[in-house]
Amino acid sequence: MTVLNNRITFVAAACALFSTSAFAQDPSLTNPAISAVLDGYYQNTERPMAERVEGFGLGHTELAMSANIDDMFYGKLTAVVEMHDGETELGLEEAFIQTLGMPGGFSVRAGRFLSDVGYLNNQHVHTDAFSDRPAAYRAFLGSHYFDDGVRLTYVAPTDIYWAMGIEAFKGDNMRAEDEHGEREFKDLGIYTAYTKLGGDIGANGSWQAGLSYMRNENGRLTADEHEEHEEHSDEDHGHDHSHSANYTGENTYIADFVYKWAPNGNYKYQHLTVSGEYFKVTDFTPAVHADEHLSEQSVDDQQGWYLSGVYQFSPNWSAGVRYGEVDTQEMHGDHFHGQKLKESEVSLAWHHSHFSTVRLQYTNQKGTNFDGIEDDNVITLQYVMTLGAHGAHQF
């Protein structure tokens, strides 16, 4: 009986996370759930396409409020406080409403929210086992992609967990660069479709796999606006604090997988998480005018991937290893240059409780023609502390 009480199956947990009834808990308009997540760090140097700068800094600090609006709607607001160039910046990451109790397994979300493509993107960055997202996320999704739009989700009544959804967003942060401010972008720029399946493997393991597609109507480069890009590339793609994608294309494909193991399904004392994702970005070459031409050149698709393993070997300690690569194309005049970034990472974290984490991380980065980046070693000391009522994390 004890095992059964401790055991929370993947299907039950996932359905709770994705079904509209999951939000119908205690928080209400007269008693909202209010929380803050404090993220502070010291880092010995900067890393490409990342938000953390050299020295002491304030990371992704969140202020969140959520509640049931009534028996039909749930709402959430998440503001983010960050430091950049000595200035304090306040941004709005989430401001959405979610339907409750729609029939047939359907639900609708509208407003500003995290896209559900891939595995990591729909999770807040403070839940990560590493100080920054993998290089593929930083290159193709601006670390974590959130936007103004609408989502329709369906959870199928099957024995295994099976969810699917479609989204439409403004897509401002996913636009190809417009150096001269003369390009006419489409107001509705991003469309996504995804499916996720999952289930249990015996009494100790659970898994989830997903496929995602993102259509970016404004993702293709244009030849005329990038004639001068070569001299600005180091500045534009180095330290980017705008949450914009550094490399875009019209089509992005993502495959993801995660496996979690814990004795008898009890994650409190010991557990292992193995996850990985693969990105492929296509159709990014310029739309060439009739009187222009690019040098005839075979241009490879942009791609990236990572594989991560995190083992919590006691209630208070966890260790993680992650390796990732990203291959992108940089336009120089009438041709493209291939470039690659490789990152090998090790982290050790101390958790005094579920609400406090102190993390030490080492990253070895190797760049091949990647915006002038040289091989480097990055050391990050980070704390993540949660105050107030904070909801359960995603699977």
Task: Describe, in plain words, how this protein is organized in 3D.
The protein has 395 residues and is mainly beta. The protein has one domain (101-385): Porin. It is 7% helix and 50% strand. It has four helices and 17 strands. The protein has helices spanning 2-6, 10-18, 135-140, 229-236, and strands at residues 33-43, 55-58, 61-68, 73-84, 87-99, 106-114, 146-155, 161-169, 190-201, 205-216, 251-261, 271-282, 302-314, 317-332, 335-353, 356-368, 376-388. The protein has a 16-stranded antiparallel barrel with strand order 1-3-4-5-6-7-8-9-10-11-12-13-14-15-16-17. Strand 9 (190-201) and strand 10 (205-216) form a beta hairpin. The longest helix is centred in the N-terminal third of the chain and has 9 residues, at 10-18. It is globular, with a radius of gyration of 21 Å. It starts with a helix and ends in a 7-residue tail after the last strand. The relative contact order is 0.16.
